[in-house]
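HUMAN:
Could you generate one sequence with tokenized structure?
ASSISTANT:
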Amino acid sequence: MRVLIIGTSWPPETFLLRLFNGLSTKGLQLTLACQTKPESVTQNHKNFTFIRTFSWNCPLYIRIPIFLYLCVKNILCKPKSGYHLIQVIRQSFNPKEFYRQLYIHLPFCGTDHDVIYFPWNAAAIAHQALFAIGIPVIISCRGAQVNIAPHNPRRSALRQGLHDTLPLASAVHCVSKHIKQEAMHFGLPSDRTYIINPAIDPELFFPLETIPKHNEFTIISVGSLIWRKGYEYALQAIKILVNQGIPVRYEIIGTGPESERIFFTIQDLELKNYVHVSGPLPPEAVVSRLQHADAFLLASLSEGISNAALEAMACALPVVSTDCGGMRETIGQKSGSILVPVRNPVAMARALAHLYEEPIQRLEMGKAARTYVINHHTLEKQINAFTHMLRLAIQVKNKY
């Protein structure tokens, strides 16, 4: 099975890289479309190939030679496919958009893959013309591009794009039941929808055999420094713990556009001695931090299902998570974790204080969390489900 993957940069997000590697080990032939060639992957894995794409947002003196090169390579050398692509774009887009759309789609002219996979809704929307070339298309619905961005009045193009693309997909992957319900508002075909939860590798994320001892109650969060991760509410919860006299240390791993605001909040709450923002760390360092922590805090306002929370659970950490998105489908008593209301630092602090005051119960919850992840969120299960979905999608005729 030959799969064309469009909409990733290189390197992709860790959870996507795990998925791609897993699919390749199943014998699927993956072609990655991105602007930077993934040399190490395409050289070391016989099941990976590469198609180079080009950004429209480059200077005109660079864009014109690229456009001419793409026309020669993909239209003159593949006249039948090139003519069909031109006709599709002409019928689907207004004249002002014609050349930009042709520029974006030309690298895929004449593709003979069995299925096209878009890991993100925005990528599917940006390449709508490919829905008309007769190859089955699969789209992933993961979170913010379905349950947040479409409600922004300035993102009307995305909202319309969801309505345009979801009904045409041969299959749609949703990371949770909640995301499926959200996507139903945009024409999601329920009969072609597959709920496949995020997964982790329990052999990569694992607890230490010897439980680390330290004087501080160590709490950790991992995720981009963006508003929907709710870090200001997490910091307020930490302030409550400090005021209660709990010897707490809170580490945030990640980077993003909200870093300055988060640093200001730390300063305003006088938490400089209790909070450390580590920035981005390599995977092995993240695992080490999780292994030496006492609890994981997810204060998000929106999630599909948090990969970071699953990784923490695999390291035998109890998780305190907000009741957002699909987290209720994972977090609960059976999973050794605690669910609290969104935007409620008091509830977060109460749950964290309980974990601090009950160390034996905290360890038992951590063990239960790892067991739950192994039973429900292993990479092997995810890869098998994805492979099954891909094969079924090929059997569904595209209804463009």
The chain has two domains: 2-53+113-199+380-394, 217-377. The chain has a mean pLDDT of 91.
